[in-house]
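Researcher: Here's the sequence for the chain we discussed earlier.
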Amino acid sequence: MTGGVTRAEYCVVACAEAWRGDGEILAAPMGAVPRIGARLAKRTFAPGLMLTDGEAMIVGGDPEVDDPEVVEGWLPYRAHLALVTGGRRHVMMGASQLDRHGNQNISCVGDWKRPKRQLLGVRGAPVNTLNNPTSYWVPRHSRRVFVERVDMVCGVGHDRAAAAGPAATRFHDLRCVVTDLAVLDFATPDRTLRVRSLHPGVTAEAVREATGFPLDIADDVPSTREPTPAELRLIREVIDPEGTREREVPS
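Model: Thanks. This is the structure I predict for it:
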């Protein structure tokens, strides 16, 4: 194992940490870095995590040896949906837009009646955010993503969940936002975004400049933790030897 830790590898570890302590729950990572992070978590500090091959097969692997992931079970779509509605899944979704309250947009840019750009559509974002733990992955932290107000609400943020009442807030659980610059969460009195940690080499000013609204960053904000040598070996030699993480977050 040679070379220093790359920004992508810090992001992988930060994504892995999102599932720490979840126990036996389905991890649903969307994106290369979250996928690698979930597999790293399962092979190290979160062995109870369930992972799929992205379709219907539950897969696992032995962290003590370099065996490839093997099929451990079958998860048909109806069972997957049961896990979603029952809260037994922690999804890490992407976001085309995200505001300070955690409202997420993956549907369109501009007025939804006549959008400037059509994106994925609402998909399962409302159900995800109202029924199971939800985190976000943003590979390019910028003002285009972190906006004052999203053009359309897909994933439900804290303010809109509160306005909708107990039916929306009962299982509403936004955990964290991992970007290529920092890790953010909602651990503020008004449940708005703040910076939990900065990736090494990133300044608070750089994050503020890349965010389209005022952002809470403590003077003593810590750095995102480094991967251990064992984690680096797993990332580089076992989970992602092809280096797909570096294509999503270039060094």
